[in-house]
Each structure stands twice: as structure tokens, then as C-alpha cells.
Amino acid sequence: MTDMTRTGNRSAVDSLGKATAIALSRIQLLAQPDVVSLIVRLGLAIPFWKSGVLKWDGFLQLSDTAIDLFSQEFMLHLPGGPYPYPMPMVMAFLSGCGEVVFSALLVVGLATRFASLALLAMTLVIQITVPDGWPIHLTWAAMALCIMRLGAGRISLDYLICRTVKP
């Protein structure tokens, strides 16, 4: 191999290295941790919010559909089961409240880790109710765990409150 070939290969490798470094820096700029946290919070909140809103016919007035689902359709798939939901009206009410409240908390980033823990618990109950839905439930669980571990980020009320409270 001649010196000219070595120099050409080295400059090609250097160019490729520089291009890779530029691409990585642009990817990292796009995927800022605070932006990622916000997107994960929204991604988890949206399906729960939509489900929660459908359970209501007005302020604290459960829809007939929600009551029917918890009374007739939903079953707990536990060993020896499936079993009907205990206290279906109470479960529908709690489910509807939780889905709306915890989703709203995630969107604004308030009590974020607590809201994520609550939605993780709801996801586990949903998994027991709809066992074939595990691919989407696994995604929800991963998002909830990610939020619980990393927190809300700087685009949140949690961050503003912590910043205001600290001296």
C-alpha cells in the first residue's frame, strides 16, 4: 500500500468520523432529556385520558356504557377464574376518576412520579382484565416506569415547584 493510498483512506475515515459525530450531535440535540420526558408523559397520558373521558356523561355522572362494561363485560382473569369485578359501579367510578386525574397530572407534570405509579397499577389491573392486550400494556408499563425513574423533567410543574421551594 502506498503512502497516497493510506492518506486517502485516513481522510475518508476522518470524514466518516466527522459526519458520524455531526449526526450524533444533531440526534442528541433533538432528543433532549426534558423533551423526551414530556413526550413520554404525553404518550402515557393520552390513552388513559381518552378512556377516562368516555366513562362520563357529565360531572361525576358515570355513563351507562361504563357501568355495563364493569358489570357485564370486564372479568378478572386470575387463576381459577375469570371472576366478575367486585363492586362494578365503584370500580367504574374509581377507574374513570383515576384515568382522568392521573392523566391530567402527567400532562402538566404535577406529582408526576405518583401519577405514573397509579397508572402503572391501573395497567396491571387492565392486563388482568384484558390478557391479550399485553403488547400495549407492556408499552404503558415501560413508559410509567421510565417516568417514575427519571421524573418529569424541566418542562413540568414539579420542576417549577421544586425550583421555587429550594432556597
UniProtKB/TrEMBL annotation:
UniProt cross-references to InterPro entries, sorted A to Z: DoxX, DoxX-like_oxidoreductase
Primary location group: membrane
Subcellular location: Cell membrane
Keywords assigned: Cell membrane, Membrane, Transmembrane, Transmembrane helix
Keyword Cell membrane included in the entry's annotation: yes
Keyword set includes Cell membrane: yes
Annotated membrane topology: Multi-pass membrane protein
Transmembrane segments: 85-107, 114-130, 136-157
One term under GO cellular component: plasma membrane
Entry-linked PANTHER family: INNER MEMBRANE PROTEIN YPHA-RELATED (PTHR33452:SF1), OXIDOREDUCTASE CATD-RELATED (PTHR33452)
Similarity comment text for this entry: Belongs to the DoxX family.
Protein's name according to its UniProt entry: Putative oxidoreductase
